[in-house]
Structure formats: structure tokens, C-alpha cells
């Protein structure tokens, strides 16, 4: 895995994309400041004018192509970025469209350079000042016409990059816990409770509209904990972009999934629909440990909690409102994380030096108490 796949959101490196109107106005403004170069050779009036017109054409081409190329070069190589960011880039902006847009900008940049050469050659073929000025104006008009064809493409990039840059940074070398479930089950509240993440918490579904990261320290070990947008029980092709962000997060960065249930009267979807969701997740991610957590137990009768926990194979019953059952869940997460770090191939090199075997030693008694 290369460096760009480890150091967080690759789209944050894109500093600024100027609109086409700005590129045109700034580029033409640069041509108005022409300083005559000193020359030992005596020049005629026609030679001085020709030199100035050549410089104006050259400067205009340089300024326009430099700004276009800056837009192109700021974009990370799509094929080199981590699959998580690739997938979200595809959801937010469509990877193929971005490639085509960048390709068109590159084509316009090359066409401007090609046209520059043609017009400079034409300029050499006349000694008449009025004809030279006409060629320069014609060149500026053709440059502007070419670059204005990219106006829609650049607006698209500006909108897309604005969304891509707010995707959180994450480190693929750290263990990651992904909190998933239906809307309004308490995912954001759990992430706030057990990590440094500060997702928005609300009393209505789909408060979380994007992936939010937080961290938790286990002694010398840092864990990433991720709040994901709520999922509804429906086919993939019918899922919104918000829901697909959750799927991408689980697919590409989850080492542990905490699936939260809500069976209270305020639940956004039915128990059956929540069961369909976790069945789908277990089919999609058979090798990822999944902890089943029932939230809002303060709103449910004790007998109902016992029955539903048995029927749904719930491992942990918690109430984030009353701070009940959270410590046991944290202990289990720590235990499973240690086990993953010790056994998973992707962490062996990362933690072999920084964390001792004694730290990674799994307490067999605890493991028996909280069997996955």
C-alpha cells in the first residue's frame, strides 16, 4: 500500500479550483503588463510591436494552460487512492466522469499550446502593426472560446471537490470499529459516548448524513470508531447515497461492526426490517466480527428485553440515555480488538514493534464470558 493510501483523505490536498471566468480575467490582465526587454540591437518600430504582440500571446497561453494544468495536477491519481475513498468518490462525484472532465481540461490545455504555435507563426508572416494587433486579438478570442468550453466541467469539479474534502481522514493502519444500524437507533450517541468523535445527535432519522470518525485510546493502542448513516431495509439499487456511504465504510475499513437494534415504540423501522438488515450485513461480511447491541432498554419492559435478546441473539443490552451496559460493551470491544491486532495479517507489521505480546495477551476468562 503506498503512502497516499495511508495518510487520510487524499482530496484535502486540492487547495483551490478557480472558476473559468477568473482564469480568463486574470490571464488577460497579465498580458496588459508588458515590460520591454532591453536590447543592444537597434529595433525598428515594427520589430518592437511584433515582440510585444508575441509576448502577449505567449503570456496568455502560459497563464491559461498553467491554471488548467494546476486543476488537473491537484487531483490525486484515482487508481492509487484507498478503496474507501475511491468508493466514496464514485458515490459523490462518479469516478468515470471525473476522469473524463480532467481529460477534457488536458485536451483544452494542449489545444491552446498548439494554437499558440500556429498564431506565432502567422505573426511572423506580417510586418504591419495593424495586422499584428488583429492576429493577437484573434488569438485571445480563440483562447477564450476554447477555455470557456470547460466552464461546466470546472463548475462540476468545484461542487464535487467541496463534498470530497469533508470526507473524514482515517488511518488504514489502525483498527476500526464501525457502528451500523437503522436510522435513529443511537449510533451517533454511542460514538459520542465511547470515542472522541462528535457526530450530530438528533431525535429524528437520518441526522447523520455522512461518515464521522472518532478515536479511543486503549492503553498504547488507538482505535478508530466510525458513526455511519442509517440503513433502511431495501435493495442496494434503491439505496440513497447516504446509505451507500455506510455500506462502503463497512466494506473497506471495518475490523469490527457494532450493529445496533431499536425495538422501542420510536423505532424508525420494524424489528423484521432490522433483522433483514443484519442478515444482509452478515452475508456481505462473513469474516468481520459483528456485535449485536440492543439500545434504549430504558424504554422497554424487562421481560420484553429478555425475549427479544433471545430471539435476536442480542449480546449487549444498553441504555445510552441512562448510561447502562456501556462498560461491558467497551470491555468486549477492547478484547476483540486486541485479538484482531494479534491475529490479522494487516496489523502484524504495524504493531509488532510498538505493542508488546504481553499487552496483546487475551484474557481467556473474559473471552469465555463474551464469546463472539
Report on this model:
The chain is an alpha/beta fold. It has two domains: 8-164, Four Helix Bundle (Hemerythrin (Met), subunit A) (Up-down Bundle), CATH 1.20.120; 176-369, P-loop containing nucleotide triphosphate hydrolases (Rossmann fold, 3-Layer(aba) Sandwich). The protein is built from 14 helices and six strands. The chain has helices at residues 20-31, 45-74, 83-92, 95-124, 129-148, 151-164, 187-194, 241-253, 271-284, 302-312, 326-343, 345-354, 357-360, 364-369; strands spanning 176-181, 212-218, 221-227, 256-261, 290-294, 316-317. A hairpin with a 2-residue loop joins β2 and β3.
Care to give the gist of this entry?
This protein is 54% helix and 9% strand. It is α/β, with parallel strands linked by helices.
The gross shape turns out to be elongated
CATH topology of the largest domain: Rossmann fold
Q: What fraction of the residues are assigned to beta strands by DSSP?
A: 5-15%
Q: List the domain count as a whole number.
A: 2
* CATH second-level architecture of the largest domain: 3-Layer(aba) Sandwich
Features:
2 domains; disordered C terminus; Four Helix Bundle (Hemerythrin (Met), subunit A); 372 residues; alpha/beta; Rossmann fold; disordered N terminus; 6-stranded mixed sheet
Amino acid at each position: 500500500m503506498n503512502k497516499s493510501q495511508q495518510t487520510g483523505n487524499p482530496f484535502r490536498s486540492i487547495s483551490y479550483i478557480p472558476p473559468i471566468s477568473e482564469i480568463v480575467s486574470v490571464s488577460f490582465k497579465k498580458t496588459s503588463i508588458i515590460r520591454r526587454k532591453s536590447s543592444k540591437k537597434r529595433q525598428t518600430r515594427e520589430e518592437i510591436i511584433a515582440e510585444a504582440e508575441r509576448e502577449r500571446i505567449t503570456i496568455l497561453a502560459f497563464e491559461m494552460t498553467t491554471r488548467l494544468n494546476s486543476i488537473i495536477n491537484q487531483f490525486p491519481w484515482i487508481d492509487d487512492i484507498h478503496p474507501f475513498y475511491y468508493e466514496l468518490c464514485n458515490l459523490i462525484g462518479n469516478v468515470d466522469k471525473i476522469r473524463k472532465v480532467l481529460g477534457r481540461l488536458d485536451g483544452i490545455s494542449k489545444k491552446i499550446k498548439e494554437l499558440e504555435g500556429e498564431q506565432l507563426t502567422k505573426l511572423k508572416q506580417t510586418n504591419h502593426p495593424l495586422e499584428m494587433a488583429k492576429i493577437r486579438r484573434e488569438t485571445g478570442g480563440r483562447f477564450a472560446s476554447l477555455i470557456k468550453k470547460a466552464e461546466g466541467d470546472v463548475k462540476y469539479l468545484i461542487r464535487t471537490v467541496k463534498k470530497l474534502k469533508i470526507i473524514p481522514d482515517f488511518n488504514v493502519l489502525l483498527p476500526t470499529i464501525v457502528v451500523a444500524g437503522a436510522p435513529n437507533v443511537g449510533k451517533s450517541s454511542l460514538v459520542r459516548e465511547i470515542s472522541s468523535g462528535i457526530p450530530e445527535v438528533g431525535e429524528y432519522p437520518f441526522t447523520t448524513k455522512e461518515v464521522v470518525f472518532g478515536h479511543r485510546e486503549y492503553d498504547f493502542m488507538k482505535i478508530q470508531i466510525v458513526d455511519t448513516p442509517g440503513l433502511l431495509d431495501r435493495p442496494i439499487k434503491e439505496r440513497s447515497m447516504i446509505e451507500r456511504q455506510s455500506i462502503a465504510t463497512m466494506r473497506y475499513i471495518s475490523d469490527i461492526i457494532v450493529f445496533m437494534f431499536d425495538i422501542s415504540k420510536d423505532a424508525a423501522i420494524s424489528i423484521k426490517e432490522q433483522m433483514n438488515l443484519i442478515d444482509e450485513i452478515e452475508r456481505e461480511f462473513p469474516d468481520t466480527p459483528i456485535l449485536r447491541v440492543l439500545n434504549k432498554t430504558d424504554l422497554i419492559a424487562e421481560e420484553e428485553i429478555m425475549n427479544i435478546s433471545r430471539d435476536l441473539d442480542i449480546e449487549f443490552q444498553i441504555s445510552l440515555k441512562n448510561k447502562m451496559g456501556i462498560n461491558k460493551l467497551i470491555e468486549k470491544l477492547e478484547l476483540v480488538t486486541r485479538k484482531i491486532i494479534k491475529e490479522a495479517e494487516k496489523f502484524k507489521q504495524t504493531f509488532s514493534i510498538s505493542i508488546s505480546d504481553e499487552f496483546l495477551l487475551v484474557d481467556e476468562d473474559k473471552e469465555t464470558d463474551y464469546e463472539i
